[in-house]
Amino acid sequence: MVNIGFHLSISGNNGFVSALQHAHDLGINALQIFTKSPRRWQNNKITAEQIKQFRELRRSLKINVIVIHSSYLVNLGSDEELKNKSLASILDDIEKAEALGIEYVVFHPGSGAFEQIRAGLLELGPKIPPNVKILIENTASNKNKVCSRFELLGRLIEGTNIGICLDTCHAL
């Protein structure tokens, strides 16, 4: 079976549930969502009732694949304060993925030195639960940026349990 999906909004009264219903109305079986504003550090809470409704509706609508896209602010290659905020944001999305039964969390690892980004990924690795897969997404930029080059993306995840999400809009 082929999975076809879009990035859908969680805005509105029913949030996460609305995104599932929208996917079903569009006739798709995969989707990507943000769990919070992608341009703010503020994390939103999910209630037990929202989790229950989401899991039940997903099962009934037969949505095969769901991906959480983490904040655009994430930057594992930055100073210690921003790196720690980035890790906290990613871990919040991982926690939500686990609660909602979502398989993937994707993020742009940021800009900076290769070694810093790799160290951030290595720090994140042991905190990833087995039922959630982390994917780093390539970055749109010139060919000198770490996350715009496939060979460097491969080296970043080497020996980890982290995968790669290829965004064709960002590919050189």
Structure description:
The chain has 172 residues and is α/β, with parallel strands linked by helices. It has one domain (5-165): TIM Barrel. Helices cover 38% and strands 15% of the residues. The chain contains 5 helices and 6 strands. The protein has helices spanning 15-26, 48-61, 80-100, 114-124, 150-157; strands spanning 5-7, 30-33, 65-69, 104-107, 133-137, 162-165. A 6-stranded parallel beta sheet has the order 1-2-3-4-5-6, with helices on one face. Helix 1 (15-26) packs parallel to helix 2 (48-61). It is globular, with a radius of gyration of 16 Å.
Shape field: globular
Beta-strand content bin: 5-15%
Percent helix range: 25-40%
The CATH C-level name is Alpha Beta
Count structural domains: 1
- The number of helical runs is 5
Gap from first CA to last CA: 29 Å
Strand order of the largest sheet: 1-2-3-4-5-6
Structural class: alpha/beta
Mean pLDDT, all residues: 89
Radius of gyration from CA coordinates: 16 Å
Strand tally: 6
The ordered string of helix (H) and strand (E) elements is: EHEHEHEHEHE
The CATH homology group name: Divalent-metal-dependent TIM barrel enzymes
CATH second-level architecture: Alpha-Beta Barrel
What is the CATH topology descriptor?
Answer: TIM Barrel
Low-confidence stretches: none
